[in-house]
Amino acid sequence: MDGFSLLPDDTLSKILSFLETKDVMQTMLLSKRFKSLWKLVPRLEFDDMRVTEHEYAKFWRFVDRAFMSHEGQALQNLHLKLRRQCTDGDVAIWVGTAVKRGLMELEFMNYNFSWTASMPKSLYTCGTLVVLKLLNVKLDVPDLVCLRSLKTLSLKYMNRSEGSSSLLRLLPNCPVLEDLFIHLTPYPNPAMPFKIVVPSLKRLSLFDSCQDSGITGLVLDAPCLKFLHVVDRWSHSRNSQSINMNEVVEDNMGVILNRPEKLLRSLASVEHILLCLSAPEVVYPVGSCFSRLKFLEVCPCKSEWLDLFMRLLKDSPSVKSIKINRCHCVLYPPRPYIRPHWNRPSSVPRCLSSNLEFFKWINYEGTQEEKELSTYILKTAVCLKKASFTAKSNDDKKKLELLRELSLSRRASSTCELVFN
């Protein structure tokens, strides 16, 4: 304790900032110095996960006391994780107080899905806010919005019927926004189009898991976009609509309807794509070229995924890294197995003969089609530096057999390192 207490206040407050607020406040018992030192910590974090039913009144009083004790000090980070319903008035006081003290990061996670929280209007004019992460919060955006410093926006469990109009008011007033994550509620609400026009946007993730309604259209204008992740899990169950190309007014603008693969029509500037290949059809026009694409990640969510994947390889000459990971197979109802059909290309894709350096396959099963694709890439990827495979099976004997088969495959690159996990 003696050595710890010799540290300067700035160092101690930085150490304390990694703890939950309840643990930070307990340091007041250590010495007189710590009675005031904890107030210098520019971060408050509250989590009611371990709070029992009869302790909730005490927990709310503790939160209020922490805010009052912290009065007058800078408050850069506020993290709230709630599983019991509180009043919108309480939320308004807590968040409003943080806004007045120079709030830079707000994480509000509402795990009580029988109640949707609301944010105070003052949050939408917080000039210091850089990171905003909301879960199960009503996006009630006022007419007056100015988030001039916001760079990261995460909206999880967002109501689709409210989200479209709210985003139209919110996004144009976030001039430096770089990261946008939207996860729509799984409940069937009226399907609504989305319009995302953010010139500064670099990374976009959009997740929709509702079977009965969904994204009827997404207009995207993001000329600086470098990373895109779109999951529209139930697109195969709805009738596809035609894309209105009249809405495309710039080279980097596109319209997405139902299937995420349709993004490929207009994303010539994207460098990194994570795509769930849930539709068997090849849906983007012949002659498309994704010359800037360097990192390609695919989730083969449907068995008939190989045609689209191979065409992507052919039309993406600059790809340096490929990652395959069937990451959604457990989350959705099983479908009757349809064996993927492997068609060996008539010519080697340019990315394999010139640029591909890293290849990774997670949840590798060693099916006939997977073996054919893997050995083809190993035999044709001249610049390949590393190929790694992580087996789905936990059977050591099966793993050894898969490793033996892959290790016997001829490799075009003499310096390629083969790794099997």
Automatic annotation (TrEMBL):
Boundaries of every F-box domain copy: 1-49
Gene3D superfamilies referenced in this protein's UniProt entry, alphabetically: Ribonuclease Inhibitor (3.80.10.10)
InterPro entries documented for this protein: F-box-like_dom_sf, F-box_dom, FBD, FBL13/AtMIF1-like, LRR_dom_sf, LRR_FXL15/At3g58940/PEG3-like
One family name in Pfam for this protein: LRR_At5g56370
PANTHER family the record matches: F-BOX/RNI SUPERFAMILY PROTEIN-RELATED (PTHR31900), FBD-LIKE DOMAIN FAMILY PROTEIN (PTHR31900:SF29)
Protein name per UniProt: F-box domain-containing protein
UniProt organism field: Microthlaspi erraticum
